[in-house]
Design goal:
10 strands; Rossmann fold; 6-stranded mixed sheet; about 25% strand; 4-stranded antiparallel sheet; single chain; alpha/beta; about 280 residues
């Protein structure tokens, strides 16, 4: 267990370790305010093992605040978070990671000048038992090759520096590093941003393989509706601090989602115009 996990256990707050069926995450009545600004009013959400959820919302809708609560950056003012049926409270990002919440941000947090295999083991490098402090590079190479092959990520040379790879390959390495840490939930921030068709196909295939064959559970934040329909099993829309739409992808369409978002945007503009006239 990590240091954060040990500290949590010492306080009587033990990381969840398998409980109710295939439910991985449940939130009940999550609310958050910043002074006079209500960021979240009431967020109820469920996420099941192997499910890929697309989280949608305009700027200011509360999407970013909700994600920051899930990752331990913010604490909710009200509401509860359950992981595998057990209530948890995150006091920091480090503690959320100890509970199995991993995030891959757009900057990927890779070191471009390091080879692929060392990036896969950043901050958890293997060392030689005979010489503590000496990196066991042979072991890390072997494990990196084994894991990338296992999840079908095509990186021919794991000694290549990350800066020499394509955007899709870099994204795949960042996802592989997070899933290798046995995350309960993986959050992906704009995973297909600025990628061509070939690179996007690589990440789409990786996400689908991880969810279907390895039962990885993911939340994807993306403003591109086409990306969401390619990647996700279900979509949830946050508007004005609450979830207003929650459907399996198979039961909705890009047109329905776009109409909903356009209607919401127009309503916000009209509300802003009324406030201007009243002031």
């Amino acid at each position: 267990m990590s240091e954060a996990g040990i500290n949590a256990a010492a306080d009587g707050q033990v990381p969840a370790a398998g409980a109710s069926g295939d439910e991985v995450l449940r939130t009940e009545g999550i609310a958050k305010t910043f002074g006079a600004i209500v960021a979240l009013r009431h967020i109820d959400l469920e996420l099941h093992r192997g499910e890929v959820l697309g989280l949608v919302g305009d700027n200011g809708a509360g999407k970013s605040t909700f994600v920051k609560i899930l990752t331990g950056f913010h604490r909710p003012d009200a509401g509860k978070i359950f992981l595998e049926g057990k209530e948890v409270r995150f006091r920091s990002v480090k503690e959320a990671r100890a509970y199995g919440i991993e995030t891959v941000y757009q900057d990927l947090a890779l070191i471009p000048q390091l080879p692929v295999y060392l990036n896969l083991f950043l901050n958890r490098e293997h060392t030689s038992l005979a010489n503590i402090g000496w990196l066991s590079k042979h072991k890390m190479r072997r494990l990196a090759r084994q894991y990338l092959d296992e999840i079908k990520v095509n990186i021919p040379n794991i000694d290549a520096e990350v800066e020499s790879l394509s955007g899709g390959q870099r994204q795949a390495i960042a996802v592989a590093r997070a899933t290798q840490q046995q995350a309960k939930i993986l959050l992906l921030d704009e995973p297909l941003a600025a990628m061509g068709a070939k690179e996007s196909a690589m990440i789409i295939d990786l996400v689908k393989d991880l969810s279907r064959n390895r039962k990885e559970t993911m939340i994807i934040i993306d403003h591109n509706h086409t990306h969401l329909f390619e990647l996700c099993d279900r979509l949830a829309v946050i508007q004005r601090g609450t979830i207003t739409f929650d459907k399996p992808v198979k039961d909705t369409s890009i047109e329905e989602l776009t109409d909903l978002m356009v209607s919401s945007y127009r309503a916000q503009i009209q509300a802003g115009q009324r406030e201007l006239r009243a002031s």
